[in-house]
Amino acid sequence: MDTKSIKTLLQNRVPTEIGSYKRSSVIILLYEENDEIYLILEKRALNLRHQPGDICLPGGKIEEGESPIEAAIRETVEELGIDKEDLEVYSAVDYLITPFSVIMYPFVAKIKELKDTYSKDEVDSLIKIPLKFLMENEPIYHEGELIVDRGEDFPYDLIRGGEGYKFSKCMYPTYFYVWEDEVVWGHTARIIYEFIKILKKNKPS
């Protein structure tokens, strides 16, 4: 291999992230009723193996060959028991890369009509939170340190300083919204918080 072939290889290659990530898409779902805008969230069915009873945004895993928006629409349609035509997709918003090797792609969409057709196998109930509440109330914030367990066999002898090496610390934020008797937290609250920040930043004065 010579430098010319290296140049050709790199010029024809599309960069991607380093590492292996799971990918999912979610929809920040807006609903308008009596001149009030709501965010529609799902309380996960209580019999699910993964995060039963947690409150989340509609959405799920991106399947092979799907784009993020295709996955977001498919999952939302399946979970809510609606037609694609019931959704008006506005835009993608900032995506979240978690320390747990997951990339989450959020989109904003409006649902034209809220029906009692959601999948009982996946969804326990729907939660309506007024957008006004989210705009006027900051979430509870907690910051914790992510701890890396390097194990007893970590080759400290290969790095300067050995076991005394000053590894970088990683602090991870967690947000909580408390609405009536419900708590929205974790990645869902983080995505909502970032969305609300966009609205506040661009809100007409």
From TrEMBL:
Keywords: Hydrolase, Magnesium, Manganese, Metal-binding. Residues 21-152 form the Nudix hydrolase domain. GO terms for molecular function: coenzyme A diphosphatase activity; metal ion binding. It comes from the Bacteria. InterPro entries: CoAse, NUDIX_hydrolase-like_dom_sf, NUDIX_hydrolase_CS, NUDIX_hydrolase_dom. The keyword Magnesium applies. Pfam families: NUDIX. Its cofactor is Mn(2+); Mg(2+). This is MutT/NUDIX NTP pyrophosphatase. It comes from Clostridium intestinale URNW.
